[in-house]
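WARN retry 2 of 3 for item q-0093 after timeout on previous attempt; input resubmitted unchanged.
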Amino acid sequence: MEERKWWKESVVYQIYPRSFYDSNGDGIGDLNGITAKLDYLSDLGISVIWLNPIFKSPNDDNGYDISDYQAIMDEFGTMADFDNLLAAAHARHIRVVLDLVVNHTSDEHPWFIESRKSQDNDYRDFYIWRKGKKSGSPENGGLPPNNWGASFGGSAWEYDAASDSYYLHMFSKKQPDLNWENERVRKSVFDMMTWWGNKGIDGFRMDVITMISKDQRFPDGEVNKDAPQTLQFGNASPYVANGPRIHEFLQEMNRTVISKFDWLTVGEGAGSDAQLALSYTGFDRGELNMLFTFEHMDLCKPSRANGWQEQKLDLVALKRIFALWQESLEGKGWNTLYWENHDQVRSVSRFGSDSAQWHDKSAKMLALCLHGMKGTPFVFQGEELGMTNMPFASIEEYRDIESRNYYAEMKARGFSDEKALHALHLISRDNSRTPMQWDSSKNAGFSTGTPWIRVNPNYTSINAAAQMRDADSVRSFYKSLISLRRENQTLVYGRFELLFAESAELFVYTRTLGDSSILVVCNFTAQEVPFEIPERFAASSLLLSNYCDTNPAQKSVRPYEAAAFQI
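OK item q-0093 returned
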């Protein structure tokens, strides 16, 4: 068996603080709200919480635009509140992981305020400044340094009249990219990470960390000629993701900071395939523990590339992706396992069924399917309840800058309001950012004030209080599943093997460790599917199922049925 590590044996619970629990009635979740709910998380059985950014921020991108890495966002509380949360979590044997956002800062960060003062300022080179191809602002005929488009839409370059120069921002114009080529930038980041480590945190999730090294040639990117003229920007991905010095930077980070602490480290790896992921997470690489990847999340997803059209889930392709990652990292690196997070829609609405008939069964099926594989499972707040996508009625109800920009882009492409809103219902990050549904009281028990974003109206039927009283609820299933994984080493360290790869309805695989084998069978459809258990599992015992009478002798798998058997 490979080396045991606590982060391999953990289940991580992701908290979006703004929407988790509001302790003071201002409509915004806060640190004291998280502390108040630690017993709920302890009861669920999770061993790590990952907090989305809690640092001081003007909130152009909900905290991913940081103006002070060593201060707490005003709405979330104080540093004393954080210290109390950290101590309370540790007292319950729950580790705390923070979100590290160092590809960019806020334009209100002191470094950037100094940087834009003059071309010879000491902090000028903390960011990526370039002269345009043609002097002047775009409005006056000037041309940016290249044609790159930003991830949130528009040009990736913002003009600064004072110095007749442009700065790079791969996201919002209020999120200027840091210049990691500058040794002072790296030292400043490493010092900040060490400061938090000395405070006692247990690691970092690293936002878009694979983008910190840019191709210093800054060439033009390929343009999508099918887009309207006003939206024809170059694709920057080949030049900003997995750049030429990325491993040098991460190995330096590991030597300087990470190796000094017993941390969980997980990077966000947009554009990384399985082999590339090993270069970040390989046990012999000295970089990161794990990488969040997106191949399974990009599958069949409405996007710019397909005109935001609804796509049917291709289960064969989904299984192929999971199997590739499982097999490629076996014995060499470690997988992350997730269906949803703050950047994705609700999994039961996307991969299962949020209908009244099949909601609970499909939510449980997705849970067992994911947690049964090899890697560290991540549960996003409310996922353990089967929270669903949100029926926003108008663009005014959306709070996410990306969603608003996508809406504007779709309108520019000629989408009707109805079609644009339907597309957002399928892709918007705000689907997962609605308030946690604690109970059936006003505002789902999230706040006594007016929530910063609308509460999903189905909170009266989907909420934590009701599910904690119900032994057959989605949450009760998650609790059993987390407990099973904690007690069963085969589920943690066993080798994965995909079976029935071409089935368009069933996801079937085994996990094997020594003489122990586990078979997991999951039906992704609302139809009964003929199936006979492999002969070697005929005398197996049932570990867990989302039906009360599952047995190895049955000749079919019922709608959204999921079961794990062990021999």
